[in-house]
Design goal:
Strand content: 15-25%
Bound molecules: benzoic acid
Radius of gyration: 19 Å
Number of helices: 7
CATH superfamily of the largest domain: Glutaredoxin
Number of domains: 2
Largest sheet: 5 strands, mixed
CATH class of the largest domain: Alpha Beta
Structural class: alpha+beta
CATH architecture of the largest domain: 3-Layer(aba) Sandwich
CATH topology of the largest domain: Glutaredoxin
Distance between the termini: 44 Å
Length: 212
């Protein structure tokens, strides 16, 4: 099944390194990151899962629950987690789905048969508290994902959800954001008391609203 932005993220039940989970129950009212890994005991995946573990506080600050997936079995995951903790100096304490029957991979379109018939590509899906899909990125197996970018997108998505702003090219936390096009300039001045800079009627900036 091909999923697109705005679609409802399908629910599923799965075996994981932390036991059986129901995806929606696991997410609760949090944001979610579901990301696929081609296989256990592979080098790039080892660094990605280690990086995710070390960013635990960053995800928690943003009310994000992470859930990894690989098509190997729980027993393999458990052995591999030992290696990840040892080599990446971390504690992996989020679940890794054991998607041996490819059920979740197929549901989320993580297998791209022309890249590999059996293992997943490196996809990452961000899901909002409303259970809709906010972002899908797909990398080849040979390229590790950029987790600074993952956190940056989460920050941008949460600013949009909470303040009706968007973020410009290469935006980073702390920089000016763009006033949403549906907001009239006279309303923007009230909504954004830190000020609105009008460059063009359609291009208006305001300081990041959730900072003091
Ligand atoms: C890796 O994680 O290093 C990897 C996995 C599958 C194919 C290529 C690289």
């Amino acid at each position: 099944m091909s999923l697109r932005l705005g679609d409802v993220a399908p629910n599923f039940k799965a075996s994981t390194s932390l036991g059986e989970i129901d995806f929606y129950e696991y997410l609760g009212n949090s944001w979610g990151v579901l990301f696929s890994h081609p296989a256990d005991y592979t080098p790039v995946c080892t660094t990605e899962l280690g990086k995710t573990a070390t960013l635990k506080e960053e995800f928690a600050k943003r009310n994000v629950k992470v859930l990894a997936l690989s098509v190997d079995a729980v027993q393999q995951h458990l052995g591999w987690i030992g290696d990840i903790n040892e080599t990446q100096n971390c504690t992996v304490d989020f679940p890794i789905i054991a998607d041996e029957n490819r059920k979740v991979s197929e549901l989320y379109d993580f297998i791209h048969p022309n890249a590999s018939a059996t293992t997943t590509v490196r996809s990452l899906v961000i899901i909002g508290p409303d259970k809709t899909i906010k972002l899908i990125i797909t990398y080849p197996a040979s390229t590790g994902r950029n987790f600074v970018e993952v956190l940056r997108v989460i920050d941008s998505l949460q600013l949009t959800a909470n303040y009706s702003v968007s973020t410009p090219a290469d935006w980073k936390h702390g920089e000016e954001v763009i006033v949403g096009t549906t907001i009239k300039t006279e309303d923007a001045l009230t909504k954004f008391p830190k000020g609105v800079k009008v460059v063009k009627p359609y291009l208006r900036y305001t300081p990041q609203p959730n900072l003091n």
